[in-house]
Design a protein that fits this description.
- The structure holds two protein chains of two kinds.
- Chain A is of the alpha/beta class.
- Chain B is of the alpha+beta class.
- Chain B has two domains: about 90 residues, ATP Synthase, domain 1 (Sandwich); about 50 residues.
- In chain B, about 35% of the residues lie in helices and about 45% in strands.
- Chain B has three helices and seven strands; from the N terminus they run αβββββββαα.
- Chain B has a seven-stranded mixed sheet.
- In chain B, a hairpin with a 2-residue loop joins β6 and β7.
- The chains are: A alpha/beta, B alpha+beta.
Chain lengths: ~375, ~140
C-alpha cells in the first residue's frame, strides 16, 4: 500500500495538471468566441455573392442558345476520373478526436474512390492534416521543362506531372489556418478552379468540420465543384455528433461562458439575403457573361473561406470540450486519491493506537 | 433605414469578405467600377457592376466625406440603397504603403517570369492596378492632412 507522502505528491501533480487543462479550456473558449464572431461576420458577403450569381443565372444571355446549358467551365459536369479532395484539419493537438476523426473520414473517402478506380489528389490544410496525410500518400512529382528559342531570347516553361500512384498529395497548406486570410484562401481557390478548368481534375470535395454552434457540429464531405446548385451545400457524407459528445460540449460551453444557441441573423444578414434579388431590371455595367465569369471563382473562394472559418471554430470548440473533460477527470482523480490518502493515514493511526493499547495492556 | 426614403439619402453599405466596414448614409457615392468611375445619387436606376480597384468616395449624409480604398468585387445600386461587395477594402489610414510598393515589385516579377502564360499577365496587371490605386489613395490621404 502506498504511503501518505507518495499519495500527497501524486495529488499535487494531478492538481497542477488540472490547472493547466483549465487554463487551456479558457483560452480555447476565448478563441472560439473570436472564431465564431469571424465566421458570423463573413456571412453577409458569402450570402451576397451567391445572390448576385443567382440573379445573374436568371438572365438568358449566359445560357448557350443551342443546348440551353449555362456557359461556364465550373458548371460543367464530367465523369469523375480524377478527384481532388481538400482535407481541413487542425493546427494543433489536444483537441480530443477532432483531427483523427477528420483524417479517418478523409481516408475512408479516399479508399472508397480508389476502389472505384478513380485517381485522387489531396490538398491538405492545417498542420495536423499535412502530417497525417503525408505519412500515407506520396507527393506528386512535377517536372519542369524549359525550351529556349529565338536565340535564347524567349523561354517557354512547361510543367508536367508524372502520376506514379493513384493517390497523391498535390499541395500542403500548413499555415493557412493561422490567420485564414482571404488572399491566401483566394490563391488556393484559384489554383483549384484553374485545375478544374484545365480538366486536370473532374470534381472537388472538401472534408471539414461544419460548425453551427457548440452543440451542433458535424463532419462533412462536401462537393465544391462542379457547382450544381448555388447557395446549397451538397453534402455526400455527414457524421453527426453523438448524444454523449453533445452533452460534453454543452457542459464545457456552460462552464466557460460560451453561448450555446445558434447565432441569430443580424439585421445586416437578413438584408444581405435581399442583395441583388430586387424584382427590378438591373442595368448591367458589363456583359452578364463577363460578370458571371469573374464571379464564379469568387464564389468558390467564399465557399472555401467559409469552410475554413467554420473548421477553425470547430477546432477550438473541440479543444475546449476535450480540456473540460480533462479538467473533470483530474477532479475525479484528486477525489479518489484524497480518499485513498485519508484511508491510508487513518489506517496508520489506528495501527499506532492498537500498538500503544496492546503495549499498555502487556504492562 | 425607414426615413431614408423621405430624406433623399442613399443607404450605403461596404461589405468585405470578413467584415462590414461601413454602414451609413450619403448624398452621393463615387465608385470605381471596372470600366471607370461612376457616381450614384438618390434615385439611380438599378445597376449591377463589377468593381475595379480604386477609391469609394462618400459625400454628404451621415458619412460626412469619407474615402475608402476598394479592390475587386461587385456593387449593387438601387434607387435608395448602395451595397458594395469588395474583396479588399481599407480605410485610407489602414493602407500600408510599404506593402503596396512590395506588391508593385512582385507584380513586376510575375510579369517578368510569365513567359507565354497569358493568365500570369492578367494576374500581374491586376496586382499592379491594385497597388497603384492603393498608393494613390494613401497619397491623397497624406496630402489632405
Amino acid at each position: 500500500m502506498a504511503n501518505v507522502l507518495d499519495l500527497r505528491r501524486r495529488i499535487r501533480s494531478v492538481k497542477n495538471t488540472r490547472q493547466i487543462t483549465k487554463a487551456m479550456k479558457m483560452v480555447s473558449a476565448a478563441k472560439l468566441r473570436r472564431a465564431q464572431e469571424r465566421a458570423l461576420q463573413a456571412r453577409p458577403y458569402a450570402q451576397m455573392i451567391s445572390n448576385v450569381l443567382e440573379s445573374l443565372m436568371r438572365r438568358s444571355d449566359i445560357y448557350n442558345e443551342e443546348t440551353g446549358d449555362v456557359r461556364h467551365p465550373l458548371l460543367v459536369e464530367r465523369e469523375e476520373k480524377n478527384v481532388l479532395v481538400v482535407v481541413v484539419a487542425g493546427d494543433k493537438g489536444f483537441a480530443g478526436a477532432f483531427n483523427s476523426n477528420i483524417t479517418k473520414a478523409a481516408h475512408s473517402f479516399i479508399s472508397q474512390r480508389q476502389a472505384a478506380g478513380q485517381n485522387v489528389d489531396i490538398e491538405s490544410v492545417g498542420r495536423k492534416a499535412r502530417d497525417l496525410v503525408a505519412k500515407r500518400y506520396p507527393a506528386a512529382v512535377y517536372q519542369k521543362t524549359e525550351e529556349h528559342y529565338d536565340n535564347e531570347l524567349s523561354t517557354h516553361f512547361e510543367v508536367t506531372r508524372q502520376r506514379s500512384a493513384p493517390v497523391e498529395t498535390t499541395g500542403e497548406h500548413p499555415t493557412l489556418l493561422n490567420k485564414v486570410h482571404i488572399d491566401e484562401v483566394s490563391h488556393l481557390a484559384h489554383t483549384i478552379t484553374e485545375r478544374y478548368t484545365r480538366e486536370e481534375i473532374d470534381s472537388v470535395y472538401i472534408v471539414y468540420n461544419e460548425f453551427k454552434s457548440v452543440i451542433a457540429q458535424r463532419l462533412v464531405v462536401e462537393k465544391l465543384l462542379p457547382i450544381r446548385k448555388l447557395g446549397s451545400h451538397e453534402i455526400t457524407v455527414a457524421e453527426e455528433m453523438t448524444e454523449e459528445q453533445r452533452e460534453a460540449a454543452a457542459h464545457a460551453a456552460r462552464t466557460s461562458g460560451v453561448s450555446l444557441g445558434e447565432t441569430e441573423d443580424s439585421v445586416i444578414e437578413s438584408e444581405a439575403k435581399k442583395f441583388g434579388t430586387a424584382e427590378v431590371d438591373y442595368i448591367f455595367d458589363q456583359q452578364p457573361e463577363k460578370l458571371f465569369r469573374n464571379l464564379m471563382p469568387r464564389y468558390v473562394t467564399t465557399q472555401l473561406f467559409h469552410a475554413l472559418l467554420e473548421s477553425v471554430a470547430a477546432e477550438h470548440a473541440a479543444r475546449m470540450t476535450a480540456m473540460d473533460s480533462a479538467t473533470n477527470n483530474a477532479g475525479d482523480m484528486i477525489d479518489a486519491l484524497s480518499l485513498e490518502m485519508n484511508r491510508v493515514r487513518q489506517a496508520a493511526i489506528t495501527k499506532e493506537i492498537i500498538e500503544i493499547v496492546s503495549g499498555a495492556a502487556a504492562l | 433605414m425607414a426615413d431614408t426614403n423621405q430624406s433623399g439619402l442613399l443607404a450605403v453599405r461596404l461589405v468585405t469578405s470578413d467584415r462590414v466596414l461601413v454602414d451609413t448614409t450619403a448624398e452621393a457615392v463615387e465608385l470605381p467600377s471596372i470600366s471607370g468611375y461612376l457616381e450614384a445619387l438618390y434615385g439611380h436606376a438599378p445597376l449591377l457592376s463589377e468593381l475595379g480597384a480604386g477609391e469609394v468616395r462618400l459625400h454628404g449624409g451621415e458619412s460626412g466625406n469619407q474615402k475608402f480604398f476598394v479592390a475587386w468585387g461587385f456593387v449593387e445600386v438601387l434607387p435608395e440603397r448602395i451595397t458594395i461587395l469588395a474583396e479588399n477594402a481599407l480605410r485610407p489610414d489602414e493602407i500600408n504603403v510599404e506593402a503596396a510598393r512590395a506588391e508593385l515589385a512582385e507584380a513586376d516579377k510575375i510579369r517578368h517570369e510569365a513567359g507565354d502564360d497569358g493568365s500570369k499577365y492578367d494576374e500581374a496587371n491586376a496586382l499592379t492596378r491594385e497597388a497603384e490605386e492603393k498608393l494613390a489613395s494613401a497619397g491623397a490621404a497624406t496630402a489632405s492632412h
